[in-house]
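Here is a complete protein record:
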Amino acid sequence: MPIELNHTIVESRDPDAGAAFLTEVLGLPAATHYGPFTVVEVAHGTNLDHMHVEDPHPQHYAFLVPDDEFDVITERLRARGVPTFADPGRRRPGQNTNDGGRGTYFDSPDGHVLEILTRPYGSGG
């Protein structure tokens, strides 16, 4: 059996709001609850379990998305007034074309740096 990531914990001041932001922006099914967690299934049984903490430590979460879905997601971000950046340091607005694909970074309500990309890093030759 291959090793797969099953879940990770996402620190959040408001787990329901953090999970709702993610599901709405990425177009995922509504979150569920399991014990103290608000659970977002991102793909094939891999979950992001939002857990309440008073002072979240920002992390980075990157999502590989189909090219046509990239446009849909960036439009959702634009409609919400969420700034997007070509780099994780937030120095260049917009998106990048790394590895022959497209990518953009944006912040979650808890300050996590989220990224969507259409090609994995290193895949462009």
Observations:
- DSSP finds two helices and seven strands in the chain.
